[in-house]
Design a protein that fits this description.
about 425 residues; mainly alpha; Growth Hormone, Chain: A; 24 helices; globular; transport; cell membrane; MFS_trans_sf; membrane
Length: about 425
């Protein structure tokens, strides 16, 4: 499945590499900022909530994690409008600035012991600002790279986006692992946890600078310069692309659940449910992230060769077949077994995530590409991704089963499989093709 031949792309390899670097670094910074919260969830629970039951405090922390996702569909509409009306570069340059500012301020927040209930309220406010910013990032960076890349390399170049997302997670994981291993626990509890949040300011300025020095994508410039009537992106999207919206949302459900369950929640799951040393659980997460980053480029290339639908179907089927057995095996072995299981999960996730950015960029035409991608991706993450840690913790507390989170992933995989099989290229037609 390729883009229409009429859609232009960048032929200069120097400009293409420049765009790839800027996309990688910008997305890396945004998701390092956003993911730091997850890796310090247990510390944040004790800093920002009253000294009650540990499970209640952790669930409160994840509730804020989930609530911050409420704004993401609205952010998707906002950033999608900016990106489809004024260009991908404009949206991406502002989103990274807002993310970095909010993350930096989290590092300065007072604790519950200092200001009481105001502490979690301020934390929620800044997490919602983070969520609003993040809603423009993944979709925008994917659309940007898809419109820069040659038709036969879109899978490879758009796989930069999930790879950089995971690189941000990896840095957060490594910092958290190093701090828990080599720093005094009291220091981590009081000031140490703030370090990754305070790093957001300088990192964000670097990412913004790189993005400001990029050109608009050729496809968007061609659309911008066309004489065809240009309806408001979000109105066009909901009026003319309903089936594509539905399919995209269903596809994103697997990414939402799998990403947050495997790459964000897993360290907490291993330490609280499997009673694995916290440093070891973070180290296992770091190892799996390294493997995921390495594998995802290969999956992007394979999607260029064998097709997006084929790769997405393979990912869904493998998740359905292997998730529950792999969760059962987590409790049967030591550290090495856990690492191997996480590597398998990373492989399965990379099959899906290495393909999804190109697929979602291709099924929406240029005039609603940012809006369609951002709205569906962020709606799925708001309803399913952001609630995954909270739902997993709640399910285990209610059922007493340590493998309860696995069924969340199986259900999401079935939904994604149905969507992939349903999709036909003729479902979404550009106004440029009609005109």
């Amino acid at each position: 499945m390729q883009q229409p031949a009429a859609e232009p792309y960048v032929k200069d390899p120097v400009l293409l590499k420049k765009a790839a670097k800027a996309s990688f670094i910008g997305n890396f910074v945004e998701w390092f900022d956003y993911a730091s919260y997850g890796y310090f969830a247990t510390v944040i629970a004790s800093v920002f909530f009253a000294k009650t039951d540990a499970t209640v405090a952790l669930m409160s922390t994840y509730a804020i994690f989930a609530l911050s996702f409420i704004v993401r569909p609205f952010g998707g509409i906002f950033w999608g409008h900016i990106g489809d009306k004024y260009g991908r570069k404009a949206a991406l340059s502002w989103s990274i600035l807002i993310m970095s500012g909010a993350t930096f301020l989290i590092g300065l927040l007072p604790s519950y012991a200092t200001v009481g209930i105001l502490a979690p309220v301020l934390l929620l406010l800044l997490r919602m600002i983070q969520g609003f910013s993040a809603s423009g990032e993944y979709a925008g960076a994917s659309a940007f790279m898809a419109e820069y890349a040659p038709p036969d390399k879109k899978g490879f170049y758009t796989s930069i986006v999930p790879a950089s997302t995971s690189a941000g997670l990896l840095l957060g994981s490594l910092i958290a692992a190093a701090m828990t291993a080599f720093m005094d626990a009291d220091f981590v509890q009081t000031w140490g946890w703030r370090i990754p949040f305070l790093l957001a300011a300088p990192l964000g300025l670097v990412g913004r600078y790189m993005r400001l020095n990029l050109e608009k994508t050729p496809a968007f410039k061609a659309f911008e310069e066309s004489t065809i009537e240009k309806p408001v992106p979000i109105k066009n999207l909901f009026a003319n692309h309903k089936k594509t919206l539905c399919i995209a949302f269903m596809l994103c459900s697997l990414n939402a659940v799998a990403f947050y369950l495997i790459l964000s929640y897993m360290p907490t799951y291993l330490s609280t449910q499997m009673h694995i040393n916290e440093t070891q659980s973070l180290l296992a997460a770091s190892i799996s992230l390294v493997a995921y980053i390495g594998m995802i480029f290969t999956m992007g290339k394979l999607s260029d060769k064998y097709g997006r639908k084929t790769m997405l179907i393979i990912a869904s089927v493998l998740f359905i077949a292997l998730t529950v057995p792999l969760f059962h095996m987590l409790s049967m072995g030591g550290f090495l077994t856990i690492v191997l299981i996480q590597l398998v999960f990373s492989l399965l996730l990379s099959v899906n995530d290495g393909t999804l950015p190109a697929f979602l960029s291709e099924i929406f035409p240029v005039e609603v590409r940012y809006s369609g991608f951002a709205f569906t991706f962020n709606s799925a993450n708001a309803l399913l991704g952001g609630t995954t840690p909270l739902m997993a913790t709640w399910l285990m507390s209610k059922t007493g089963s340590q493998i309860a989170p696995a069924w969340l992933l199986v259900i999401a995989s079935v939904i994604a499989l149905v969507a992939t099989v349903m999709y036909k290229k003729s479902d979404s037609v550009s106004i440029l093709e009609k005109g």
